């Protein structure tokens, strides 16, 4: 706006200061009217201009409509609410696990479209697809994983706090401000009525689109929001209004400004105040409840959760990033955190679950709101004097702990090293358990039904833990705990780095072992340790025997199966029938009556079958040797092969013991350790110097062993046994494959059928 006027400087001489500063209501721009009159009469004139600019401001969008409907639901004051129905319908958002349902929906739409275009009857196909869709929807939403429920709770089209409030209340008036300078839109508070009774409602409000989410700060309150909720709590407590809170936030807003304004103090003040309010408090988790930001309005007498809501101290992504160093482990973290409604009810953190319709991620809130309204009415039946005690006991009973349980080694890697108290098991109890287990296995053996191996493994692991505990207690009582722990730590470090044990460290271990062997009998718990160790050995032996029997039984079944396959072959059966017919046609009643040609033919057929059986066994990766048994009664002067075998085993044991005694000597022992170190240092491509050192050490070790063995009588025993074996072979009958030598002619002779020896220690008839 601009205006121009002429004036004379002389004309203002008679004007007072109050006249010049007088309001513009008496003139223009603070200049009195009479002064303007004088200016026009002045002789001298000078032109000047006064310019005033009005800044154009943003037009305020008043929520009150021009034609307010007095009969609107919630009363005429509801027109003041900024929460209006969206002009544009929200865009559908499909979660990853819902894609099969979307595909079925598209199929149903396509079939209906085809039916409309062609005029054909596709009602059967449509009904079938709809039934399939309903069944898939039911199966999907009744078997949701924790991370899928997290995604549903975060769904952008999920009903918000105000959606539920306007659905369950007859009237609702929103109250604003924390009386500290700001109204945080992320927390909404107000008074509403249900069935004529007034309630104070407060809750986290997320946006329904991007614009609203930015305005509501994605449902993350600042300290002003929590102080606004605190003010309304005092208001409700003063007037006796029950408080109903709705929780739906990923957490309190954690920016620098919020911390400067006292975010932690605001949350803590709310927690303390809520435990002292004398009105009933009901909290309902309608989406996600994140950490202290949710708990700041969640200290209630009853905590209810929608079926697909979650309540957690840290989001699955944050937990996965901390524990597994990657957010991709969020599904695993969600399962471990126990954040779903059903899990929290089992832990007695939540008091009830409000069911949701199938597809509750973006369902109409009217159905769910009916369930919420019913739950609120049921939760208000509390006596006022007992409210404080009830609220305190609810939170006092949450949680639990266990003492004395061994820690998983994987979890113990980054834990502070300390002695964990281990629950001591009574010796009598564990002995009774072992006896009971052994008796069960004996009874099962008689009934040919073996018990599961897991019980035996569990008992062995339990005994191992007990033996370790008893051993550690014994080491502590004899004063060797520090040295034992130190050496164990050094060995663990070597094992983790794949290093060879240094001779000096090995000497320390040998010395500590000798001291332990000498000192353990003096420990107070030595008898208990020995008893448990004996039980452990017995159970380990039982387990080893059971595994060996199982392997032998399995192998025998496989062998019998292979033998049956060979013997049932048509060509083998044909040979057998032909040979049997020839024997019957010869008219001989005994083997000796058969002619030479038929005997040789029998031997040939037998050898062919033995070779077939041997090939079948070789297919099972077995070492096979076909042996023909000889006459049992041999000459008394002749040494049997079994005796020679026993002597060979005894000599092998003596040689082995002699070598071990030689190796235990300090000189040879050090040479062997040095050889290991040289080989490890040389690696896969040793240089010439390393090769020479290794060769020299190997030569020295061989010479020391040879000298030690020559000094003993082992060489003489070896030569003597060698001569005895040669003599036995010469005196024994040769196996030329003839039928006459295989079967003796004497009537009182005893025969044994051929057998197949497999491997070293396994023989099957």
Automatic annotation (TrEMBL):
Coiled-coil region list: 617-661
Top-level division of the source organism's lineage: Eukaryota
NCBIfam families reported in the protein's UniProt record: accA, AccA_sub, PRK05724.1
UniProt keyword ATP-binding present: yes
Gene Ontology MF term list: acetyl-CoA carboxylase activity; ATP binding; carboxyl- or carbamoyltransferase activity
GO biological process: fatty acid biosynthetic process
Native organism: Carya illinoinensis (Pecan)
Name under which the protein is recorded: acetyl-CoA carboxytransferase
Pathway this chain belongs to: Lipid metabolism; malonyl-CoA biosynthesis; malonyl-CoA from acetyl-CoA: step 1/1
Record keywords: ATP-binding, Coiled coil, Fatty acid biosynthesis, Fatty acid metabolism, Lipid biosynthesis, Lipid metabolism, Nucleotide-binding, Transferase
Domain named CoA carboxyltransferase C-terminal: residues: 128-382
Pfam families cross-referenced by the UniProt entry: ACCA
Catalysed reactions, as listed in the record: N(6)-carboxybiotinyl-L-lysyl-[protein] + acetyl-CoA = N(6)-biotinyl-L-lysyl-[protein] + malonyl-CoA
EC code: 2.1.3.15
Gene Ontology, cellular component aspect: acetyl-CoA carboxylase complex
